[in-house]
Amino acid sequence: MNHGPNEAGRLVVDDVDLVFTPARRDPVVALENLDLEVEPGEFVCVVGASGSGKSTLLRLLDGMLTPTKGTITSGSAPVAGPSRDRAMVFQSDNLLPWSTVIDNVAYGLTLGGMRRSRARQAALRQLELVGLADSAGQYPRELSGGMRQRVNIARALAVDPQVLLLDEPFAALDAQTREIMSAELLRIWSTDRKTVVFITHQIDEAVYLADRVVVLSARPGTVREIVPVDFERPRELSLKRTDPFGRIVDHIWSLIEVEVRGSLGLS
Amino acid sequence: MSRGTKRGGFLAWLGGPTRGASWSRLVLSIGLFLVAWQVAAMYLVDNRLLLVPFTEVAAALVDEIADGAFASNLYTTVLELAIAFPLAVFGGFVIGAILAGSKPVRQTLDPILTAMYSLPIVALAPLFTAGLGFGVASKVAIVILMAIFPVITNTDAGLRSAEPALIETARSYGASRLQVLRTVTIPHSVPFIISGVRVAFARGLVGVIVAEFFGAVSGVGFAIAAAAQSYQTARLLGYVVVLGLIGLLASIGLTALERRLAPWREES
Fold first, then answer.
1. CB–CB contacts below 8 A, A to B
2. Closest-approach residue (CA) in chain A for B189
């Protein structure tokens, strides 16, 4: 890798272990010897069976967890706790019920000390981007699940992070909404191409979105294979029904299937 | 709502969300209650020590007002509440916040607080009258003791029950501990605290009246006790009606306050 001046948005995970040591129980090795590099502006999806440490990896990247061994670098500095350079989007939208949509989107900015009026202007631009400017004054309770998740993404984008970390953001949505949302995400991402790390259970979702799909193996979690996805962008949803697409999905599924069966006690 | 206005007419409007409808419901329910009272007193209950018609109660109340006694009694009780209740709410909030913030303190004090909360504190009223005199001080003490516990309990519960996911989100956006408190924990606790204040007011009202029974020179409770001793049922019930009105006003006020402080909870 040539470490030029444009380091913002690069993520490097170098030989990382993460061991949980719960009180009065045996330690759990969640991740072991994990190496991963994500290029600036790259869209990487992470898939793997339950227990492969996908979410743990994302929390390490964000800085909410600290590796037991190894280092994580974001841009040119080591990750040492959450930072507004990296924004996190969870499966549940986690919007503040007591704040209006626009104030939710402005949340990260006001926490950073920006004046409320300026933060709201910036938030409105993000709401326009996700197509929800008309809902600015509503409370989250008044929106559908898909709309709330778009607000959540707008909130993450509003802090203008270099890296966007998404932890199964569409898992709580129905299948149709989910399809549209992933197309929407690509459209939004294409406007300024931030680095994205996207965790999902859904293999077709990963292949549709990603430049590369990282397949994790379970217990302990480590990189099983990194599958490149070279389809041209912009991608239509119809891409999902083509043969080359199906072959990549099948390949990734074959990597994971053994472990899913194992976790079910099947052989 | 359009369905309702077309078919249901007045009843649908009455069940509707408008301000006019909400006042109409209030007037209607009070009106129905007074009619029921009047009918019960005239045709069902013979015992005039137990119940007299509302019209006589109203007349007694008018006499009391003309006499000047009403104003001075009401003033005393309202003054006692106005001193004690804010102190109880503030103190309850501070203690509740301390409990929420420190597990060892909470666990240590919990048995005592639980015991005190379930204790009929009005039982201490004669003691306070003996110790603090017939004046305002003994009533203030009782009201604080009655009202403080629900505020403590609800503040503690409210501050501790914010969703961990919301706190995690705040932290992922770099929120400091203080910012988490200000933007997540405290807003979450507002409805809890307000419902604690609601219970506190009801208990405080009981406290002030019972304390005045046991020894006072003025006040609504004093007037009720005096009326009872001279078998003036109409005068007694007049003051009871006033207590009902105070409770109603407090409830309306707290609802308005909640709407202001917690607008996100309003039904759409």
1. 52
2. A98
Residue ranges of domains in chain A: 1-85+161-267, 94-160
Instruction: Choose the weakest-confidence range: A130-139, B9-18, B152-161, B246-255.
Output: B9-18
Range of the domain at B11: 2-42
Question: Does residue B6 sit in the same domain as residue B57?
Answer: no
Residue B106 has pLDDT above 60, yes or no: yes
The H or E element spanning position A69 is strand A69-74
Q: Do B166 and A96 touch (CB under 8 A)?
A: yes
Quick one: average pLDDT of A77-86? 87
Nearest CA in chain A to B265: A98
- Rounded to whole angstroms, the Cα distance separating B153 from B204 reads 16
Per-residue HEC secondary structure of A33-44 comes to EEEEEECCCCEE
Q: What is the pLDDT of residues A205-230, one digit of tens each?
A: 999 999 999 999 887 888 999 999 99
Question: What is the pLDDT averaged over residues B42-70?
Answer: 92
Does the CB of A99 have a partner CB in chain B at under 8 Å?
yes
- For B3-16, the DSSP string reads HHHHHTTHHHHHTS
Residues 6 or more apart in contact with residue A264 via CB below 8 angstroms: none
Interface contact flag, B264 A98, Cβ < 8 Å? yes
| Nearest Cα to Cα of residue B214 among B205, B204, B226, B203 | B226
**CA distances, B250 to each of B182, B236, B243, B255 (Å):** 27, 22, 11, 9
Phi and psi angles of residue A167, each rounded to the nearest 5 degrees, phi first = -105, 95
**Cβ separation of B183 and A97 shorter than 8 Å?**
no
Q: A82 and B170: CB-CB below 8 Å?
A: no
ipTM value: 0.79
Best mutation site among A100, A111, A148 for testing chain B: the one with the most B CBs within 10 Å?
A111
Count Cβ atoms within 10 A of the Cβ of residue B20 and give its class: 0-12 exposed, 13-18 middle, 19 or more buried. exposed
The second-level CATH assignment, the architecture, of A1-85+161-267 is 3-Layer(aba) Sandwich (3.40)
Among B163, B166, B169, B261, the residue to mutate for chain A (most A Cβ within 10 A): B169
From chain B residues 182-221, the ones with a CB under 8 A of any chain A CB are 183-184, 187-188, 190
Note whether B29 and B66 are same-domain residues: no
Chain B contact present for A66, CB below 8 A: no
- Residue type at position B174: G
Q: Do B166 and A98 touch (CB under 8 A)?
A: no
B205, HSE (Cβ side, Cα atoms, 13 Å): 17
Whose CA is closest to A166, among A189, A187, A145, A147? A189
